[in-house]
Design brief:
By secondary structure, this protein is an alpha/beta fold. It has an eight-stranded parallel barrel with strand order 1-2-3-4-5-6-7-8, surrounded by six helices. The structure holds erythose-4-phosphate.
């Protein structure tokens, strides 16, 4: 499973990228707001760090305006994936931008039928939002599994980009089900390394090592 980082925080992206943990980046208008940066500038900087797909989201609601914005965003760098919302206009924009050869990430997907439409419109990525479904007491992971089954049934090439990943359990479940990609905030990716038994085992080893009175360096 590929790891995308869900942030516009350049320092966090650079740190994870140096560890080989970054296969791509996703941003959205809320993350751009949080960064306090200009969308074109920060996206260009991210594309200079990461060689994989970097999603940049359009903000218009009409297809023709989304297409114009998408073309402008795609000029930032060759690894831009234009992010469009899963609306009827978004699907139109997806089809046009995909036909022009751009990578397209269709976002805000909350149903298997929406994912089916995105695949038919030529999306490179579909972004089902796991955490936001869990927030309203629905099962986000069940949606990932349903889309996996549907895409495999018909050999759709659209990649499942599990989004709104909030917990380490979300990440492991996505990998078990076979999501192609998950996108998670830097903190969630860092937490994947943590386990209480690792901490306890290490503390014991340190205690015993001190008792040996030895040094390696
Ligand atoms: C994905 O592309 C979205 O930016 C993101 O995963 C949304 O996550 P949230 O529901 O935690 O805001």
């Amino acid at each position: 499973m590929k790891f995308f980082v869900d942030t516009a925080d350049v320092a966090a992206i650079a740190e994870l990228n140096a560890l080989g943990m970054v296969d791509g980046v996703t941003t959205n208008p809320s993350l751009i707001l949080k960064s306090g940066r200009d969308i074109l500038e920060v996206t260009k900087e991210i594309c200079g760090i990461v060689s994989g797909p970097v999603s940049a989201e359009v903000v218009s609601l009409k297809a023709d305006e989304m297409i114009a914005e998408g073309r402008k965003l795609a000029k930032i760098a060759p690894n831009i994936a234009v992010k469009v919302p899963l609306t009827w206009d978004g699907l139109k924009a997806c089809k046009t931008l995909s036909d022009e050869g751009h990578m397209v990430n269709v976002t805000l997907c909350f149903s298997a039928n929406q994912a089916l439409l995105a695949a038919k419109a030529g999306a490179t990525f579909i972004s089902p939002f796991v955490g936001r479904l869990d927030d309203i007491n629905l099962d986000g992971m069940e949606l990932i599994a349903d889309i996996r089954t549907i895409y495999d049934n018909y050999d759709f090439r659209t990649q499942i980009l599990a989004a709104s990943i909030r917990t380490v359990n979300h990440a492991a479940e996505c990998a078990r089900i076979g999501a192609d990609v998950m996108t998670a905030p830097p903190d969630v990716i860092r937490k994947l390394a943590s386990h209480p038994l690792t901490d306890a085992g290490l503390a014991q080893f340190m205690k015993d090592w001190e008792k040996t009175g030895q040094k390696i360096l």
